[in-house]
Amino acid sequence: xxxxxxxxxxxxxxxxxxxxxxxxxxxxxxxxxxxxxxxxxxxxxxxxxxxxxxxxxxxxxxxxxxxxxxxxxxxxxxxxxxxxxxxxxxxxxxxxxxxxxxxxxxxxxxxxxxxxxxxxxxxxxxxxxxxxxxxxxxxxxxxxxxxxxxxxxxxxxxxxxxxxxxxxxxx
Amino acid sequence: xxxxxxxxxxxxxxxxxxxxxxxxxxxxxxxxxxxxxxxxxxxxxxxxxxxxxxxxxxxxxxxxxxxxxxxxxxxxxxxxxxxxxxxxxxxxxxxxxxxxxxxxxxxxxxxxxxxxxxxxxxxxxxxxxxxxxxxxxxxxxxxxxxxxxxxxxxxxxxxxx
Lengths: 171, 161
Hints:
The complex is a heterodimer of chains A (171) and B (161). Chain A contains 4 helices and 6 strands; from the N terminus they run H-E-E-E-H-E-E-E-H-H. Chain A has 171 residues and is of the alpha+beta class. The longest helix of chain A has 22 residues, at 52-73. Helices cover 35% and strands 19% of the residues of chain B. Chain B has helices at 3-7, 9-15, 59-80, 126-139, 152-160; strands at residues 22-25, 29-33, 43-47, 84-91, 104-109, 116-117. The longest helix of chain B has 22 residues, at 59-80. Chain B starts with a helix and ends with a helix.
């Protein structure tokens, strides 16, 4: 199965900006004018499938792009959103960050109604998550590229010691 | 301590001056349970350095927040047995920012929850799209001539296939 977004990146369609690992595209399915998406060039369906350092780079790019977009379209704010998994509304099998310029009264349905939680529920959740988040850490860094050493093309043959001939004759 | 930090409740949450349900902590960020959650298990990642928006943060901190968000999401999915997470950051009141300290929300997503964090696909005026896209391409230093047509229609066709 081919990925629509990998194809777009390859054809350089809609690509605003790219570097070695990350591409920024004008969203082909925009919510507002100026809506962009930031993707890793490495195909990954979920955020969790990407190495940590690439995730870092994607967020870094999104942050940079977000400020440029605000300036360019003259927006009052910006959202950076990841829909991670279909239950979060993810529609494509290439993980991406949405960068959406926002204006007062644009009525985009992005948000939630905060509901006060019971203290007992919160404490229970605190225990569960504290335990689960013990695994966080050890962020994967990019491995340095192997240094290419140029090998000498031919090793010049040394003249053989004349005494070796005599030694070889010894049975 | 600079004035802004003295006044900022979230800086006090980070330092522990105000008690909170902290679930992760390192040298750059703290992850805290939201007491008014969108869904059970909703947390937010606070950078320890005070900043109103993510633009004021050094880029290593933004990258670190992203990496923590990834691992938070990964471990949250396992621990809470949910199928997905929404990661949400708002810069500016118009974007839904409610606090004077930048934060990245990680929200576990349950079936039929009332969380609305799905950018809708909107039919926009093609002329407007073209204009804004050209502005963006100019801003990002691409030769506009190269991009005579952004072929947005073609792409939509591809997506609908």
